[in-house]
């Protein structure tokens, strides 16, 4: 034997196989783990005697294969229940640390089915692990229990491993039957061999072989002679049980089992699932699931909210809720896509500290250009045939998304598909959409968010929720009448009459993108559900300015999403219920008349006044939000669409529900001083803040001067945004240097003409964010409660305030900042040229500014207390 040949520890077995080779992965398919143990023990003993390092990977529920107390064996414990990714990352770290030439014994891979629920993931584990072991020049033993795995899984394992041996026990006799031995052969190698002591005798007689295999053929097999996947068998059993008596005492255990493979691992969401879903609900999910694995947080939230409402028949929600026919793409398909396209090692690199962003960007680009196996694209095609030419939306639904503590609002992509074109074209568009959502899991913004939230070390699979877009065909357009965001607790009450527990909406005409995204050129209608006609802007004269001017629709002719001016839509789609949505803009009509023009139809302002004042819509939404909050025992945040029939019937489509990320909900009362010296007051206002009742010191103020900012060229305005990022990342955290950032218009806008276009990552270390109205420059704050931008503020615990200096009762004393030296040139000398626009004021310990806000009185004050 040369130096690459090693022994199995059994002379007779070495004779059959021609010995083992360095690099061999050896898979034993057994009926009983005792038979695998009988092969493992002599292999490990011979390796140790030969001076080899033996490592035992322990993860199974079965008894140990090797004595864990034996000093010559290194044991690594792994937890498969943390998920495929975590398990595989941990294993590959061990393999890298152990290095080449090591001998490995793995617990029985079949035990992974309890943790991962599907054969497919075991096959993927083998596909990514065995080549790595081969490259490390190791020898590794694996076992599979024969009745446990599908034909497809065995085919993938057979094609990957170097050695595959069937081990049978029949009438107390042991038989080994090599079916693959790479690079070796003999006249009898691939015959079954009967073991007698240390001797393995081939069955050279056809009579003996036929007798043996006839006895063995009694193993259970699925339809067509193929063993079904563990996942399919589980749901077959669940379907049979669902058709049995509702009082069958086996049902709760099956609900628990299905919830753990479909819903996720987060305890609070699992508890809600157990409480509200029944067996029929979970079996129904499987009927619309492509692939295997979890359906993800967004899908769970949508289904859970609908079920909570349906479980209250006295409320008659079936008369209000629009039915859904959503489909789901299971989270396992995300890993399958990475594995089958050969990117797993890049994925492993992305999971390291050094490769987190750099390898993530390479992987993001790869994800945009991979291929799916034929059986997956066929399932996609079947789903698209169900939806036909109705528009659909492909939405992210990751494991971590929409849970308690992390909303991931706007971090992952959702893609509208208008669904025009041939079936082949629509399939290609859908596959591109799936790739795009997958790629968004590796975007820089998503990775930064996960790291900032301490989630970068946790498993994050991307499932998908595919929904029919709610709405109707209107000429060349498809759109819902209404869409928006609703929250059950309104932490942004701008008037003392408002009850935070009544909830609020951000309401738009058309697609809901303008309600969830903080667009640079529009304002959704902010609705306090206890006073729905109360407006948050300065007065009725501002109604036109602070309204929605563009409507997002799906253009059937262009086969794309499009933004259409309200007046254009009113002209082209007169069948919308405009009386409930809009009112005539008399001021604009008068201006046009003065110019000798007459508009038909007259200019419209989207106020939604008749809808909010003369229909049951606000009551329906308030009742829905309150019901969901009670069930969650936590404030909730929903996305919805709504349509109004000619007869006035309102149908609401609840498309998303998640725990509302909130701050300050249960804060106590803060006593705000009634008067403070003018020269000690930076600002005072009533309402228009988010962040609850707080008392917080401020050591630094970064201020962007509105007049100086508006005089800048557009490129220089972008440079101001980057400068803000450099200032907030100077190395001191929020606790050491609590900072207020004040500037004109909207922070985070995409349009420099509406405010400073910072990225949210450039705001993370800020304690207070203030938006100042500068009417001369057209820079106005936007009450962004309910938007993705708001979710980022709340999750980052940034206090927000909008200041309107021209409004009665608002005090803004910028002279207080002018009295103190500008620290910008000292902090960032290379940016001193922007000191006329950006001012940085530092305050010494004991002389800080104090921010005080009281949510009950709706007062906010920032001042230098007299000490």
User: What class, by secondary structure content?
Assistant: alpha+beta
**What portion of the residues fall into strands of 2 or more residues?**
15-25%
User: How does the major sheet shape up?
Assistant: 9 strands, mixed
Q: Helicity level, as a percent range? A: 25-40%
**Poorly predicted runs of 5 or more residues:** 219-226
Overall pLDDT confidence: 88
The N- and C-terminal alpha carbons lie at a distance of: 89 Å
Shape: globular
Number of helices: 29
Widest beta sheet: strand line-up: 5-4-6-7-3-8-9-10-11
Total strands: the figure is: 38
| Radius of gyration, whole Å | 32 Å
Chain-wise SSE layout:
Elements: E1 5-6, H1 11-17, E2 20-21, E3 25-30, H2 33-49, E4 54-58, E5 73-77, H3 84-98, E6 103-108, H4 112-116, H5 119-135, E7 139-145, H6 151-160, E8 163-170, E9 173-181, E10 193-196, E11 199-202, H7 206-216, H8 230-242, H9 251-262, H10 267-276, H11 279-287, E12 289-290, H12 297-310, E13 327-329, H13 332-340, H14 344-350, H15 358-367, H16 374-387, E14 392-398, E15 414-417, H17 423-440, H18 444-452, E16 462-468, E17 472-474, E18 477-479, E19 482-487, E20 504-509, H19 513-516, E21 525-528, E22 550-555, E23 560-565, H20 566-572, H21 578-581, E24 582-584, H22 586-594, E25 604-606, H23 609-614, H24 617-632, E26 636-644, E27 650-659, E28 681-686, E29 689-690, E30 694-698, E31 700-704, H25 706-710, H26 714-728, E32 739-744, E33 768-772, H27 788-795, E34 799-803, E35 811-812, H28 815-818, H29 824-827, E36 838-842, E37 849-854, E38 859-863
């Amino acid at each position: 034997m040369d130096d690459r040949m090693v022994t199995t520890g059994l002379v007779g077995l070495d004779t059959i196989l021609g010995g083992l080779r360095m690099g061999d992965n050896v898979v034993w398919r057994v009926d009983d783990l005792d038979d695998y143990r009988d092969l493992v023990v002599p292999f490990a003993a011979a390796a140790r005697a030969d001076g080899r390092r033996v490592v035992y990977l322990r993860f199974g529920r079965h008894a140990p294969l090797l004595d864990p107390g034996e000093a010559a064996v290194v044991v690594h414990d792994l937890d498969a229940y943390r998920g495929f990714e975590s398990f595989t990352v941990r294993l590959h770290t061990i393999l890298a640390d152990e290095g080449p030439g090591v001998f490995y014994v793995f617990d029985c891979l079949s035990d992974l089915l309890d943790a991962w629920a599907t054969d497919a993931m075991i096959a993927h584990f083998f596909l990514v692990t065995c080549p790595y072991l081969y490259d490390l020049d190791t020898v590794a033993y694996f076992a599979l229990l024969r009745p446990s795995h599908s034909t497809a899984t065995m085919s993938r394992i057979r094609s990957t491993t170097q050695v595959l041996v069937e081990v049978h026990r029949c009438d107390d006799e042991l038989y080994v039957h090599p079916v693959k031995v790479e690079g070796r052969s003999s006249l009898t190698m691939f015959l079954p061999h009967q073991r007698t002591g240390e001797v393995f005798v081939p069955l050279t007689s056809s009579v003996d072989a036929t007798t043996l295999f006839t006895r063995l053929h009694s193993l259970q097999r699925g339809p067509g002679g193929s063993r079904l996947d563990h996942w399919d068998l589980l749901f077959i059993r669940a379907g049979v049980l669902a058709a049995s008596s509702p009082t069958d005492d086996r049902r709760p255990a099956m609900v628990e089992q299905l919830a753990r493979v479909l819903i996720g691992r987060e305890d609070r969401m699992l508890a809600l699932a157990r409480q509200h879903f029944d067996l029929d609900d979970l079996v129904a999910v499987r009927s619309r699931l492509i692939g295997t694995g979890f359906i993800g947080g967004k899908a769970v939230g949508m289904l859970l909210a609908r079920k909570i409402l349906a479980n209250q028949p006295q409320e008659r929600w079936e008369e209000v809720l629009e039915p859904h026919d959503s489909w789901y793409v299971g989270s396992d398909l995300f890993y399958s896509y990475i594995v089958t396209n050969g990117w797993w090692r890049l994925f492993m690199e992305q999971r390291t500290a050094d490769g987190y962003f750099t390898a993530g960007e390479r992987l993001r680009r790869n994800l945009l250009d991979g291929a799916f196996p034929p059986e997956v694209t066929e399932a996609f095609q079947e789903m698209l045939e169900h939806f036909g030419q109705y528009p659909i939306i492909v939405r992210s639904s990751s494991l971590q998304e929409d849970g308690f503590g992390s909303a991931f609002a706007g971090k992952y992509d959702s893609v509208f598909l208008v669904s025009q074109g041939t079936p082949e074209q629509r399939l290609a568009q859908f596959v591109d959409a799936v790739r795009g959502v997958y790629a968004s899991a590796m975007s820089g913004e998503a990775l930064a968010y996960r790291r900032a939230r301490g989630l970068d070390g946790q498993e994050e699979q991307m499932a998908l929720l595919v929904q029919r877009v709610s709405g109707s065909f209107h000429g060349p357009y498809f759109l819902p009448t209404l869409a928006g965001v609703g929250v059950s607790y309104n932490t942004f009450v701008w008037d003392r009459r408002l009850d935070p527990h009544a909830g609020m909406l951000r309401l738009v005409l058309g697609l809901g993108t303008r309600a969830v995204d903080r667009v640079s050129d529009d304002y959704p209608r902010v609705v306090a559900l206890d006073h729905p006609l109360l407006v948050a802007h300065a007065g009725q004269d501002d109604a036109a300015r602070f309204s929605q001017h563009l409507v997002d629709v799906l253009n059937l002719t262009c086969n794309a999403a499009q933004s259409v001016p309200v007046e254009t839509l009113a002209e082209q789609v007169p069948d919308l219920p405009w009386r409930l949505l809009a009112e005539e803009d008399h001021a604009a009509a008068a201006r046009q008349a003065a110019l000798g023009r007459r508009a038909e139809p007259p200019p419209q302002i989207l106020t939604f006044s008749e809808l909010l004042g003369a229909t049951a819509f606000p009551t329906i939404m308030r009742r829905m939000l309150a019901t969901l909050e009670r069930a969650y025992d936590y404030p909730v945040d929903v996305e919805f669409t709504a349509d109004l029939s000619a007869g006035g019937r309102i149908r609401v489509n609840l498309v998303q529900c998640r725990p509302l990320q909130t701050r300050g909900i249960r804060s106590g009362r803060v006593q705000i001083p009634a008067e403070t010296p003018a020269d000690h007051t930076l600002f005072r206002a009533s309402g228009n803040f988010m962040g609850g009742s707080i008392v917080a010191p401020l050591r630094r103020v970064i201020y962007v001067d509105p007049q100086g900012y508006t005089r800048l060229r557009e490129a220089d305005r972008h440079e101001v945004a980057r400068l803000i990022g450099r200032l907030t990342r100077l190395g001191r955290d929020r606790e050491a240097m609590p900072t207020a950032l004040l500037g004109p218009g909207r922070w985070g806008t995409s349009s420099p003409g509406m405010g400073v276009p910072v990225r949210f990552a450039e705001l993370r270390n800020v304690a207070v964010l203030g938006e100042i109205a500068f009417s001369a420059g057209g820079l106005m704050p936007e009450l962004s409660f309910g938007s993705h931008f708001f979710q980022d503020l709340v999750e980052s615990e940034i206090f927000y305030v909008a200041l309107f200096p021209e409004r009665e009762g608002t005090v803004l004393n910028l002279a207080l900042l002018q009295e103190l030296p500008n620290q910008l040139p000292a902090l960032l000398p290379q940016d001193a040229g922007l000191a006329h626009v950006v001012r940085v004021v530092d305050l010494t310990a004991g002389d800080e500014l104090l921010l005080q806000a009281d949510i009950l009185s709706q007062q906010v004050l920032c001042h230098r207390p007299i000490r």
